[in-house]
Design goal:
heterodimer; A: about 250 residues; mainly beta; 2 domains; four-stranded antiparallel β-sheet; 4 helices; 17 strands; B: about 170 residues; mainly alpha; Potassium Channel Kv1.1, Chain A; 8 helices; disordered N terminus; Skp1_comp_POZ (chain B); SKP1/BTB/POZ_sf (chain B); Skp1_comp_dimer (chain B); ubl conjugation pathway (chain B)
């Protein structure tokens, strides 16, 4: 099987699985994130090398950071795609750069069950799994009555009007419109998930179920007019919200 | 770190060293080229490898060594310039073309090369082959990678382990 070109003395069949770990890591450093996981699947030795190099696994929590698009080239319209780094919680010096293949996400407003809730360049939410690169589009931002789309002569989206007054660039509105997003379960393998979001200056709470095409607003009783939602969590089949004034609500 | 070889000993003629492969083939090469290897550089600075002595390399066969030396001879002038601040764009393009062509070889030769580069501590060659291997891996499934790199067929245990690992990320089987 070894190529005859290696000369007269029959070289032993080279075995890439026997490559020293430091060489494997040098190869690994040249792979982008999801490909590094494929690398780890190849054989046991490669899996150990990937673990030693700090390649995150979907079953282990990691810390994610990303560049603030407001500082990184927002001026280039539409060219403000963010990338992020995943840090191991066990060794903060091990970082893995992720560049999103779609290169169109402008912000991230949540992470649950191995999925990220990303904002795309049209300010719509997208569920994105960095481990598989699967993406699920959620209903558009124009679903909310406070956002109107303005189209140009040729039917292309020009910008949004927010609250019937403010003109917002299509990629900019989403950067501040969503405060937090939470998933009830993983959308992988047809999971029957619900996404709950806090949005519009922390004033609103809305949700969408798997497969639905519309956001449904949540009416809660406990908010005073000057109160805001600060957090939202899912636990045993129910979502709970908490406000700045400390009101906890079971939001179904 | 290394002193340039230019002012070394006998004027004009470059200093030569002899390297001996695992299958006892002797290679005579300029010390400057052999010194791309961190391991050899130390021996050469100590005055080794000259005359009839030769430096034995028990881990590198003649086919691999001649390939390694081809790389070293090509890269020696740029390395002697200390990363070549005065290299022209043409020189750099020529080296890049050489590098691309150089690693366009069978995976078994690539394996011998990266092992030799590792043993001899030739950093440039090591990263060149590593990059080539990464390029060969990109966009392939674990099974395709195994086939590309000539792995033996996985044992049932290995297969089960691979399946479990792939399942963790919800990847489809090939």
């Amino acid at each position: 099987m070894a190529a005859g070109s290696t000369g007269s003395n029959a070289a032993p069949t080279p075995s890439w699985s026997d490559l020293p770990a430091d060489l494997l890591i040098i190869v690994l450093e040249r792979l982008e994130f999801p490909q590094a996981l494929v690398f780890a699947s190849v054989c046991t030795a490669w899996r150990y090398a990937a673990a030693a190099a700090g390649v995150p696994r979907s079953s282990v929590p990691c810390f994610m950071s990303w560049a603030d698009p407001a500082h990184e080239g927002y001026t280039a319209r539409g060219g403000l795609a963010i990338n992020c780094s995943l840090y191991s919680l066990l060794d903060i010096n091990k970082a893995y750069e992720i560049s999103f293949p779609r290169r169109c996400f402008v912000a991230c407003c949540g992470a649950s069950h191995g999925w990220l809730v990303m904002v795309n360049e049209l300010s719509n939410l997208v569920l994105y799994n960095p481990f598989t690169t699967a993406a699920i589009d959620l209903p558009p931002i124009t679903d909310f009555s406070c956002v109107q789309a303005v189209y140009g002569d040729r039917g292309s989206l020009e910008h949004y009007i927010f609250a019937e007054a403010a003109v917002q660039e299509t990629s900019y509105l989403g950067i501040w419109f969503y405060q937090k997003a939470v998933l009830s379960c993983s959308p992988s393998k047809g999971g029957d998930y619900v996404v709950m979001i806090i949005h519009r200056d922390s004033d609103w709470l809305s949700f969408v179920k798997a497969g639905q095409s519309k956001w449904t607003p949540v009416i809660t009783s406990s908010r005073g007019s000057r109160d805001h939602y600060v957090d939202c969590a899912y636990h045993y089949g129910r979502f709970y919200s908490i406000t700045l004034y400390g009101m906890v609500d079971d939001v179904g | 770190m290394a002193a340039p070889e230019s002012g070394d000993g006998n004027n004009g003629a470059a200093r030569m060293v002899t390297l001996i492969s695992s299958d006892n083939t002797r290679f005579e090469v300029e010390a400057a080229a052999a010194s791309l290897s961190q391991t050899l550089q130390l021996t050469i600075l100590d005055g080794g490898g000259g005359g009839g002595d030769g430096i034995p390399l028990p881990n590198v066969d003649s086919a691999t060594l001649s390939k390694v030396l081809e790389y070293c001879i090509k890269h020696a002038p740029a390395a002697a310039n200390g990363g070549a601040p005065n290299a022209t764009a043409v020189d750099r393009a020529e080296l890049e073309r050489f590098d691309n062509e150089f690693v366009n070889i069978d995976q078994s030769v690539l394996y011998s090369l990266i092992m030799a580069a590792h043993n001899l501590e030739i950093e440039g060659l090591q990263s060149l082959v590593a990059k080539k291997v990464a390029d060969m891996i990109k966009g392939k499934s674990p099974m395709e990678i195994r086939r590309t790199l000539g792995f033996p067929d996985p044992t049932p245990e290995e297969q089960a382990e691979m399946n479990a690992h792939m399942l963790e990320y919800g990847w489809a089987y090939e």
